[in-house]
Amino acid sequence: MPRLPGALATLLAGSAVLALGAVAPAQTSTAALQAPAADATTDDASTPPAVPTPAKPGVRPELPVQKHYELANTALENGDHDTSLYHYERAVAGQPDDLKWGAEYRQVAIAAEAYDRSIEFFEALAEEHPESAHVQMNLGYAHVDKIPAEGAITQVILANTALTHFSNSLEIQESWLGFYTRGNSYMYWPAVFGRTPLGIADLEKAIALADGMEKLQFHGRAWAALGDGYWRLDQREKMREAWQKGSEMYPGLPELEARLAKEGDELDAYLDAQFETSRRVATHLREIFGGEASEDAP
Amino acid sequence: MIAQIESASHRTTGLLLAALMVALPGAAFGDGPEGGVDEGASAAEAKGDPSEKGPEQESWFTDVAKPAGVFKSHRNRSFENRYAHIMEGYTALGASVAVADYNGDGWDDLFVTDSSNGGKNLLYRNNGDFTFTDVAAEAGVADGNDATNASANSLWFDGDNDGDPDLLVIRFGQNLLYENLGDGTFRDVTAGSGIDDLYLNCIVAVAFDYDLDGDLDLFYGNYFAPVNLFDPETPRFFPESFETAANGGGVTVFRNDGPAKGGGWLSFTDVTDEVGLGKISGWSLDLGHADADHDGDDDLYVAADFGTDNLFRNNADGTFTDVTEKSIGIDTKKGMNVDWGDFDRDGYFDIYVTNITDEYMREGNFLWVNNGDLTFTDLSRETGTHNTGWGWAGKFFDYDNDGWLDLYVVNGWVSGNEDNYVLDIFDLIIQPDVDLADARNWPPMGPKTLSGYQHNSLFRNLGGTLFQDEAPRHGLDSLLDGRGVGLGDFDHDGSIDFFVSNANREPILARNHQPTDHHWIALRLEGEASNRDAVGARVKATVDGQERWTFVNGGNGFASQSTRTLHFGLGKVGEVEKLEVFWPSGATQSFTKLAADHIYRLKEGGKLEPWTPGTPSIAPKAQAAVPKAAPKAPKPASASGADESP
User: Fold this and answer.
1) Which pLDDT tens digit goes with each residue over B564-602?
2) How far is A187 from chain B (nearest CA, A)?
3) Contact A153 B14 (CB under 8 A)
4) Prediction ipTM score
5) Residue of chain A whose alpha carbon sits nearest to that of B361
């Protein structure tokens, strides 16, 4: 078993209830933290114990994180979300800066509607790995993942907390993804909150960073989001200019094509729908890791 | 100009408000907040001269509040306690209207509340020529506001089954009960009635006969918990959560036990726990009743602020069962209004509930489509009724008599200055571990705006699946902070008019002079074995082979009670093939071949008779005019009296 530092070890052992501050958990923390049911007599570390117990060296043989990762995927293929989460948590705990594994874990948490479990897991992981930009990123996304399942006010709290973690991530390490993610998150805030210009600034930084990177099609999304920012500010010329420029640099990008094809009320309705808070935003990041594209990705 | 600004409203709120502040004063509503009753009101002005509005493309409504003499502005309550900085913003309620024929002359009158300390409530007697005269003082019902009570709403109901509507004045504080003495005056019968000495902070009441014993019982929806808002003993009387608050006033049920012992008027008994409604403690904003499953008794929908709405099934044994989870699910929204109506003509009554939809909170309204099995599906998005803003009253009615129920929705919380209070609220909610129940933690609202300057919507029903907002065309897209909508055919011309109460502003009296050649019938029911108001009576009209349902409701809709007279638009069809009445007593009556464009009267068990309004009982100040389209003498309908089941 990978080394599990303090709070995280306690968390994974199922005995901790973390304070969540302003975010009221929709489900009890203890339930979220418990390992899935299994044969209590087994001592095989590949099978989660029925009654979670702290890891005892020598009693439960440690598994390599890769093994946990494989077991997580096997469980997922079998539709066993609880077991998958159990193993994913151990895998991600062993490789906390692995953005991909963290993103995959969160998708299982979404499928299991285990939003608080995911938040609590990454909170504990962030506490143990304050140097990890990707843990902060996943922690922010974990809050975003919960938004569609909540009421309007809790959505605001979650979105605001997510922004905090995206900022933490950028403070640790600046990146295209960091600026794009935070900038795009600002776009979900009505203009009255005054955050749109902050988002535009982030997106411009993301665009500047992309210039020095290998050109990837999804980088064009920063242009789409930049235009969205000008739409929020009702600066229609700049809006269309951003989308047009992005389209020239990233031809065929669906997000840009869809925006450029619309005008007036149709465009407003389209963008209003894009920013509807009850609509789930895909946070799987598969495009980054070579997976299939998704229009509603962040 | 306003339309241009509106198109960008979700991105330019500050600019929008500033522009509207410039554009609005006096533009549409004359005298502003200080405007009072126009003594110079005349019948000619009040008519709105429909002759000039012929083409169907033009506006069909005219705001005649001023010439009709009902233009006095509502005033919010100001507080003088240590929580005044926050209380005033959160009690911008109390502008309400209740429609009923209080003096039995056949013309619907209006009771309109004010909320200011010492402010007088208004009883507008209908003069029969679309002018009204305030007779509240001489009738004895003007006093509803004092240092420890603020009028919030009112309800007409015939509590003693004597044929005239009695009056409940609903107040933040203690409610008042008035007996209608039948001579144009009332007496205060609160003391000894069983509803006295209760500080319930009620904001809505409906009256229906839940136990089917032949009299009307009272259901209160209470907003704040029972604390003295004017001198609270604790600062912890605000909602503990924005989404799951359970520290509100809940619901109180008073069973009507008939004449009080010792010579009092009526005796009511608090049976809230007994009937199964004692477990909810949310911030009730509206109640609405209807027979959702056609089993002969009325079920109850409770709309709550800061938490889930609830639906209760009437068990027909004097109790209710909470069926919320199965019927509508748990929500975290801000329910403001409940109105029931069969908008899709499938034979079951559907529900319209308003919530908050703005750039910062996109809850969306509910249009609960009744699936017929006590489950409901929200089709507000699909029908185009989802987003109206910060909604208040939303009422079903057929304004164009095409046979489909349309919907008028009033919106907007507080229209203040260019500063947006939502930013202050945002600062509050992101504070970790903030105690929201403590009023001291809430930021002062002052003159700021929160979801203000929002248009009202008139949704035209396009065949039961889609609505189209026609408010701009008809000049009904007011930006005032609307609260209640009282419907009634105030001139008996066969088209439904309505009164809109606005918080801290003048009301609107929308006179309908729709020019279509659509037909209609109206029906005035009087119970015999059933409660005399016939509340709960369901009526099915078969028109051109299609069935249409309506029912008599006892006060549904936020801050407003509409007429008890039932109305069917018939479209081009000139006859109702069959009319069936299902009384709360269980009796049914049916009639065939009713000529269109007439008002009918039916006493339970009796004959269906044509009815024409008499001369208003008290001569109006202004010269009386013959109603624009006085009902013609219809051919008698044939009454079969055969019992049938729905």
Assistant:
1) 999 999 999 999 999 999 999 999 999 999 999 999 999
2) 11
3) no
4) 0.74
5) A152
> In a 3-state reduction of DSSP, which class is residue A91?
helix
Is residue A216 pLDDT above 70, yes or no?
A: yes
Q: What is the DSSP letter of B463?
A: S
CA angle B481, B485, B489 (to 5 degrees): 145
The structure tokens listed for B328 are 């509508």
Per DSSP, the three-state class of B390 is strand
Distance CA B475, CA B462 (A): 20
Which H or E run includes B340?
Answer: strand B339-341
In the structure encoding, which two tokens stand for residue B395, read together?
A: 């009422």
- The set of residues, in sequence order, having a beta carbon less than 8 Å from that of B500 and lying 6+ positions away, is B97, B410, B456, B478, B480, B482, B484, B485, B486, B507, B508, B509, B510
Shortest CA distance from B14: residue in chain A: A192
Q: Quick one: tokens of B422?
A: 């939502």
Q: Is A273 in CB contact (< 8 Å) with chain B?
A: no
Give the type of residue at B203: I
Residue B479, pLDDT > 60, answer yes
**Cβ of B568: how many Cβ atoms within 10 Å?**
22
Q: What is the DSSP string of B499-565?
A: EEEETTS--EEEEE------EEEEEEEE-SSS-TT-TT-EEEEEETTEEEEEE--SS-STTEE--SS
A156 touches B: beta carbon within 8 Å: yes
What DSSP letter does each residue of B566-588 carry, written as one string? EEEEEET--EEEEEEEE-TTS-E
Which residues 190-229 of chain A have a CB within 8 Å of chain B? 190-193
* CA distances to A87, B513, B526, B600, B627 from B494, in Å: 71, 9, 20, 12, 11
Do residue B429 and residue A277 have CB atoms under 8 angstroms apart?
A: no
Contact with chain A for residue B317, Cβ under 8 A: no
Distance CA A170, CA A178 (A): 6
Q: What is the rounded distance in angstroms from the CA atom of residue B124 to the CA atom of residue B111? A: 6
Q: Are B451 and B386 in contact (CB under 8 A)?
A: no
Q: How confident is the model at residue B159 (pLDDT cuts 50, 70, 90)?
A: very high
Tell me the one-letter amino acid at A226.
Answer: L
pLDDT digit string (tens) for B350-376?
A: 999 999 999 888 899 999 999 999 999
What residues form DSSP beta bridges with B499? B486, B509
Which residues on chain B are in Cβ contact (under 8 Å) with A265? Answer: 7
Residue with tokens 């403690």: B281
Q: Which of A192, A234, A276 sits opposite B360 (nearest CB)?
A: A192
Q: What is the pLDDT of residue B608?
A: 98
**Touching check for A278 and chain B: CB below 8 Å?**
yes
- CA–CA distance from B156 to each of A52, B135, B167 (Å)? 63, 16, 5
Helical H segments across B276-361, by residue range: 324-327
What pTM did the predictor assign? 0.84
With beta carbons under 8 A apart, name residues in chain B contacting A273: none
Q: A49 pLDDT exceeds 70?
A: no
